């Protein structure tokens, strides 16, 4: 009894731990989903603000907004290409490591541009713009190199796979077009040709038909020759004409207008 109670208690504890584990996993997954949604909404708001500031505030502030928008667009596009292709191509792991190092410089430049937007001294900002623009071009150029290299690699793999698939389809198509069956006498699926004499199987004898002779090797040789000629022909082979035999007078039908034969003729 005590063992049963202990087993029931152990099962209850296991069920509770499993429920806690599933709950924690669900909460973490929901939190990650919420974080992604919030981050996406924040990026959308910031991008919209930068575009509006670029158009509404010409001058130094508008140029800073343009630099930030170009940096964010280039880095985000490269990130999508690399992380999107990494599950299918393990060779992109090194490129992702390089991009993460490049992202650190990009975040640093973005933070600096954001601080300069709140700087009241426009003259100082104007003097630093050429250096900031040069840094931006180097970062975006590196990001574009990684992005286009990953795209070219994916397109090359797709072209190779398509070429291999096309070759396999050509081979299969050629195999499917071989529908003509070679006629063989031993093929059970071959349709019999009308008029062609069928050969007797092993242990079977063919009954001679009407008008066919059964005695003599000459007749057998002639029949064998005709059978070989029929086997080599492509069309239906006509049967041999039946032999003409004399009628038996006793089997002839009698009609009322015929005279009965005389006795002396029958005796002769």
TrEMBL record:
Compositional bias segments (type: Low complexity): 218-233
Bias type Basic and acidic residues, positions: 181-190
Region of interest (Disordered), ranges: 181-268
Protein name: Secreted protein
Organism in which the protein naturally occurs: Streptomyces glebosus
Organism lineage: Bacteria, Bacillati, Actinomycetota, Actinomycetes, Kitasatosporales
């Amino acid at each position: 009894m005590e063992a049963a109670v202990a087993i029931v208690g152990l099962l209850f504890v296991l069920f509770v731990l499993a429920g806690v584990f599933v709950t924690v996993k669900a909460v973490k997954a929901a939190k990650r989903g919420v974080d992604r949604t919030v981050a996406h909404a924040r990026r959308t708001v910031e991008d919209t603000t930068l575009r509006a500031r670029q158009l509404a505030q010409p001058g130094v502030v508008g140029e800073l907004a343009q630099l930030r928008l170009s940096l964010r667009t280039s880095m985000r596009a490269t990130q999508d290409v690399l992380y999107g292709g990494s599950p299918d191509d393990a060779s992109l792991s090194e490129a992702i490591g390089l991009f993460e190092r490049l992202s650190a410089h990009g975040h640093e430049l973005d933070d600096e541009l954001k601080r300069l937007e709140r700087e009241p001294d426009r003259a100082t900002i104007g003097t630093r713009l050429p250096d900031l623009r040069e840094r931006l071009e180097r970062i975006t150029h590196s990001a574009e190199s990684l992005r286009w290299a990953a795209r070219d690699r994916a397109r090359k793999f797709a072209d190779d796979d398509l070429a291999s698939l096309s070759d396999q389809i050509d081979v299969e198509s050629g195999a499917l077009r071989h529908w003509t069956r070679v006629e063989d006498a031993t093929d059970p699926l071959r349709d019999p040709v009308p008029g062609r004499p069928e050969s007797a199987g092993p242990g079977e004898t063919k009954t001679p038909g009407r008008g066919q002779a059964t005695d003599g090797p000459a007749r057998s040789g002639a029949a064998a020759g005709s059978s070989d000629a029929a086997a080599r022909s492509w069309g239906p082979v006509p049967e041999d004409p039946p032999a003409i035999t004399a009628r038996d007078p006793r089997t002839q039908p009698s009609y009322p207008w015929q005279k009965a034969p005389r006795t002396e003729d029958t005796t002769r």
